Fold this protein.
Amino acid sequence: MSPRKKLLAACGISGIGLVVMVVALVSSGGIRDYLDGHYSRSSGTGRSVVYTSTSTPNVVYSQIHSARPPSDTQFDPSGYFLRYSDDIVAITANGSGSRIYIDDERHGFARWLPYVGGTWGTGGGAGENFRGGGPGSGK
Amino acid sequence: MTRGWLRTATVCAGTLLVLATGPGIAHADVVFDPADADELAAILAEAAEGQDICYGWRVQVYDPDAGSDLSVGTSFGAGSQVSDFGPPLCATTVEFFADITYTSESSEAEDSATYNVVSEPSGPTKQDLDELDIVDEGGLVGDDVDVVVFKAVAALPQLAADVGVARPIEATPETGVDPDAHLTDSPGSDFWRQVGTMLLWGLALLVAGIVFGGYVMRSAHLRPRDLWRRTPARTGSGPRRSTVDGKAKSKIRPSGRAKPKARPPGRSTRQPDQVTDVATDQHPSPEPRRDAGSEKE
């Protein structure tokens, strides 16, 4: 391969890297912007907003989780809970659809304390406050 | 006296039986801490009461050092199995199954795990659970297997409602905000979690291209302006020669004395002293030269 072709290949590699970085920056965004753009706003006061969706909680959770990966999640028979750097999102059933709550961290934690308390809040990561068990013999 | 002993023995036996079989009692569990197993059973019990479905989990762990062990529990309590309760008490069942196989340190085989969701007569499946992205093989053989199994089992009632076999349970938010309730740890940056991997890959490709391009230019002795020339670039490694004018040529002539050109006698235009110097250098002779026309006798 001639040096000129090698240089073209190098430029191609750098170009792909540049495109990947630009796409990453363009596709990034906050969880609040995502909820505003994809679900119907039902009510809201201050930093606490409620959205609705005709999809089931399972589908809504999958959509939000893949679009805006949370730091931690919690599952309960009555809903799914997602933790972000500044916000807490709760997805609960609403008839055949879903209701989506978003609050800032302080209000969200207090609001959903019976569901996420004892699991989130005082440790260094997922499951930190879980009492834990396990065989402890894995590689 | 005999009746007293008999009554005491009966009470003790009954107490032991209740302690051994009653709900909320700590059980030895290969996956969960006893308190976690009881908490999970209580969550399932609350859901089962509202949905009229029996929930449960059964995790089999194979360990070459410790042997085979089992973690089971249902909405009736930790340590019980769904198969212990048939119809009409459990007309509909949803159960999480997992098999975890650990290998010994000396084995080259990796730890492995499988899992499934079994519903009778119908209900959520493994595919429904997979959409939540809670469980995978790596999570089951990892250090937080208890957290993974706990989340998967706790999600079963919501999945049952999603597929339409049970009434959905709606979480109700607390109305009063507790001023003392606050999160004390940091969840990290949303931006880096979301696009950090893509940015790092892009940056790696960008740097790799630049480094590769620099290496190619350096090894081929190319300069940036050579990239825009139409003529093919030289790839030789010798010194560059200028072919523009004669002065440049003379610079690379080997050092040493130049061979003088032959000149016809008597037509030199040089000064006498210069002529003498040249002649002396080229024809060294112990005797001085004599020139009849220029020296006085």
